[in-house]
Structure formats: structure tokens, C-alpha cells
Amino acid sequence: MWTVFKLQWQRLFKNPLVVLTFLGLTVLFVNFLGGIQSDQKIITRTYSEELTIEELDEWITKLNEDDTFVFEASDYDSIYERIRMNETSFALELNEESYRFLVGREDMELSPIIQHVDQVFSREKRIAQLEESDLSEAFELQTFIELTTVLSDDESNVSQGFPVAILAGVTFYFSAFSIFYLMINLIEEKKMGTWNRLIFSPLSKTKIYLGQMLHYFLVGLVQIALSFIILSNLIDVDLGTNYVPMLVVILSFIFAIVSIGMFIIGIVSSPQQLQIVIPIVATSMAMIGGAFWPLEIVNNRILLFLAELMPIKHGIQGMMGVVNQGSSVSEVFVPIATLLFMGVFFMGIGLNLMERVSEKSSL
Amino acid sequence: MLETRELTKKFKEHVAVHNVSLYLNEGESVGLLGPNGAGKSTTISMMSTLLPPTSGEVHFKGKDALKNPQGLRQVLGVVPQEIALYEELSAYENMKFFGRIYGLKGEKLEKRIEDVLELIGLTERKKDAVETYSGGMKRRINIGVTLLHEPEVLIMDEPTVGIDPQSRNYILEMIRKLNREKNMTILYTSHYMEEVEKLCDRVYIMDHGEIIASGTNQELKDILSSDETIRIDVESLSSEFLERLSEHPVVQKVMQEEQGYKVIATKGDDLLGDVFDMAKSAHTKITGIVVQTPTLEDVFLHLTGRKLRD
Predict the structure, then answer these.
(1) A150 band by pLDDT with thresholds 50, 70 and 90
(2) Taking the model in full, what pTM does it have?
(3) Predicted complex ipTM exceeds 0.85
(4) What is the set of domains in chain A, with CATH numbers?
(5) CA nearest A9 in B: which residue?
(6) Contact status of A41 with chain B (Cβ, < 8 Å)
(7) Structural domains in chain B?
């Protein structure tokens, strides 16, 4: 296995252009897309059935004190209709003593917004409590409140100038490209006959496949790691120090991609066809999966359903959880498990198809 | 040493190989002769355990090689028809890799690489990428990587396709040396009958997935012992002359060639006189006529009605 693994690296070092190109494109695209999207605000539609219009406006003003989020007044009927039509994923209902969220579908932005609303509510509650008590030094109270607001921003991490979803999405997209392109080698080996030479040898097929796949796996990992290191040093992005869950998400994503690659080369038998299929598969996977824009702006149910089938969507979701909310492995279990399931599923079918192709081509 | 018993391979409805039984004795050099598409490559793919047969058996030293392929694979060398090398790597790097997959390492591996490079005459170019080699050099290194682990059985699938005569002779000489000096058992497939005649002790002739004849070169030629081959060169080809030749009672087969006709006819009868008469009446000028002893090519023509390279 290690002999095959080392050989693939040796071959990569002779022709490193593909991987280097995709690494460069990652940096370029993240800068470009990040620049476009970093100014985008998250809009939360807000309504109340208890408060007057003036009271609602007053609350919205308080909620909008933080520049990251935008709260807009609306009414229940139009909000209900928007959620029903999938045009928005959630809304905020404000009451005199409480608040609640109407959630139509899962949304990665919801968690920081809940945190923000909770902090504003707590702050207002404390002000109200202090006003009720006999305190005369209003100036000190104001200072205390400002400090609390700043702390809430740091905790949620969402106020950083760069969207993590874009960073993760584009990096995953180009790493998938590199892995798929390197996997063309496998088809070429079968065409050239070197694959048969390996089969003639005492090496077992399992070892041959493992050596190859471990190589693709590590190339993907190195590319993602390098992209994150370069980008976090180049631009205003803080990926935090939640390394273990981050690594688990990345490894699960690469596993899914390598498996999908095996599936593709099981179906497509010539390197020329693969060169056409790879950009189509990788790009559509990235577009549907939300690598280039947040899925929150998509309201087509079919596209949203398809997004669930894209590993890149689950990879981004995992990374958002790990970076923005400091989630542990168990807290991002759903995206990790989905990626692993995809990996096992496509690997099984892919290997089966590859073996059938091998038999036909060994003539 | 290596034996196949009634090997059959079907791809859906197409029968690529049908009931092929052949054997190789230790130290023997055996030819597998047949035109393109005869089923030679499929047969050797099954013999080398690359391709599972639809039915039949492969035995190596009395053991079932299909059930336990490791024993055979350890001592088997297969030279594929295509240049199966990593062309971006050098000859040395390719050898190092292929040596390692057979468990060679350290000094032993280095020594073997040195010896094989010497044998194939590529010591001077060992550090150059294979993609920079000529066709003949690529063929030699293609064989070289197969020799690293000193295989007991060497299966060669048309190893001289598309190369210049000089490289071809070099390779043929090398194979003969391996067989005689190292006592290597060789199965050599080709559609060049002269190569097989030169190299092999015994020959199997395949056509349409079946063995149609087998034996030593002489035994096969004896099939035509009562026949003779006459090559007739003419100034210009004539369909009338061809028709008359074919209709002659002692003529068994006529094959049109570039400059004339090849005729297989029963020995003893006075065909030559008739040939001149037929040429005259067909207004064809004969520029040369040669009576030959039969070759394996003629045997194949006799058995199948087709030339080997059709």
C-alpha cells in the first residue's frame, strides 16, 4: 500500500501544476467572493401581536444597534406567507415579556441571531430592573451596558468581516476539483496498463486501492489546510482554535469527495470524458451546495432539496458550526454523519462499478 | 508447470475464448500465434489471473492458480502489449517502484535494477524520463520492469509491436538469452510468425477464440508436407489470372499480395507449366516465380484461409 501511495506522491511532485493552480484559484476566489459578500446583512423580519407599532419600532431600533443584523418590521400574515413559500427561513415575534422565533427551515444564521436577540432582551430586562430600583447614577449604567454589547459580538464571532461559508465553500470546491482531477490518473493507469501490472503483482487489490485513495485523501487535506492557513493570514478571517471538530468535518468531507470521485470514474471510462464531467459535477455541486452564495437566498424547494444531497453543503454547515459557534464534534454530528454516509454509499457503488470496468478493459 | 484446462471466456453473448487448453513445461519457450482478435490477449489475461474465466481452470505447478493466485503472481512476469509505465518518471524510478511491489528492497533491489538496465541496454539513459525515449527503448524498459523479480514464467503479449527492426532484433535476442541462460519459461504471443518460428520450441495457433493447431514448428509445417507454396510476382495484378489460379484443381489456397499471388498447392503435380499458360491467357506478365517450403504463415493460411495479419 505504501509503495503505491509513495509512487502517487512522486508522480504529483513531477506534475504539481493541477494542485497548485487550484490552490491559487482558491485564494483568488475567496478574496473576490468574500469581498462581494462580506457587506451583506442578515435580515430578520419581526412582528408582534401584543405590542403597538411604536413599541415594536422601539424594540427594532434597539435590535438594530448592532450593524451585523437587520431587523425589519412586518406583520404575521405576510411573514407566514413568506415562510410558507420558502422565501424566508425564520422570523421573530416580539411580545411584551418574551420573544419567539417562527422557523420554517433549518438556517445556519439563526443561532447567532437568537444569541443576539437574547442578549438585547437580557440587557433591556436588566435596565428595567435597575430603573425600578433606586439608582441615580445613570452614566455608569450606560457604560456597563455598552461593555455587555461588545462582549456579545465577540462571543458569536459573526461580526468578523468575512463570511466563513464562502471561505469553506470555495476551499472545498477547489479541493474537490484537485481530488477529481488527480483521480483521472486512476483511469489513465487502467488505460496505460500499469494498473494491470499492479494486479499481476503479489499486491492485493485492497492495498492498491488503499494506496491510491490515501493519496487523494491527503492531497485534499493538504490543499484545504494550506488554503485555510494562507487565507487566514491574508484576509480578515479568524477560524478560531476549535481544531479537532474542524479536522473531523474536513476529513469527512474529503472522504465523501474521494468516494464520489470513485463513483464518477466507475461510470465514466475515458480520461477525456472525465475532463468534461469533472467541472460539471464539481461546479454544480458547489453552486447547489451553497459554496458561492448563502443558501438562505435560495427559495426554490427543489434546489434546497438538492442542496441536501451535496457534500459541500454539509461541509460548509459543519465548518460554520465549528467556527462561528465553537461547536464540538457531537454538536456537528449531523453534517459529519451525512458526509460519512455519502462516503460509504458512493465508495461501495464506485468500487463495484470500477471492477466491472476493469474486467471489460482487461481484454 | 503452467497449464490451462478448457478455458472459456464469454462477454455477454460473445465468446472471446472457447475451450482453450494449453501447457508450458519448465524452461520451454512456447508461441501463441494468431491474428488480431483471435483471443490471445484474453487467454493470457486469464492465465495470469487478471481476468476470471467464465469456465475452465488454470494450474500452476499442479495447484489451482485461480483459487490461490498469489503463488503464481510471485513468480510470474507479464509484459503487456502496451507501454505500461509511468512515462513522467525515469527508467530507474519505474524500476524501483515495480521492484518494490515484488518485495525487493535495499541493495538487492539496486543490484537487480543495475543488472536489468545492463541487459536491456539502458544504463546510460536510466535517469531520463521514459516519455523522452524512442519507441524501441520504451519497449525494452517495458520488458525490463517485468524481469526485476526474476520471474520463473514470462508471458509476453506482442512485445515488439511498432518498433524498428534493430530494436526488434535486440528484444528477440534478449528473450532467447533469458530462455536459454536463465531457463525462463516463456509464453510469447505474436502475429509475427517469423518471431515465433525463431524463438519458440512449440506453437499454439489460435483463431476465433479457439486453438486450431499446436505442435513444434516442424510438426505444424508437416501439416503442409504434401503441399508446396509458390509465390508468383506479376507486372500488374489481374482478377482474371487470380480466378484461373483459384479454379486450378491442385491449388488449395490463393492469396493476393502486393506484387503478386501466393499459392498453396499439392506437391508433385505440374502446376508451374499451367501457371505460365494461365498467365498468358489472362494477359498477365510474370516477373518472378519462387517455390518455397511452407512457413507457419502458410500453415495458418491453410488452416483458416486468412493471413495472420488480416
Answers:
(1) very low
(2) 0.71
(3) no
(4) 2-37+162-361 (no CATH), 42-156 (3.40.190)
(5) B89
(6) no
(7) 2-221 (3.40.50.300), 226-293 (3.30.70.100)
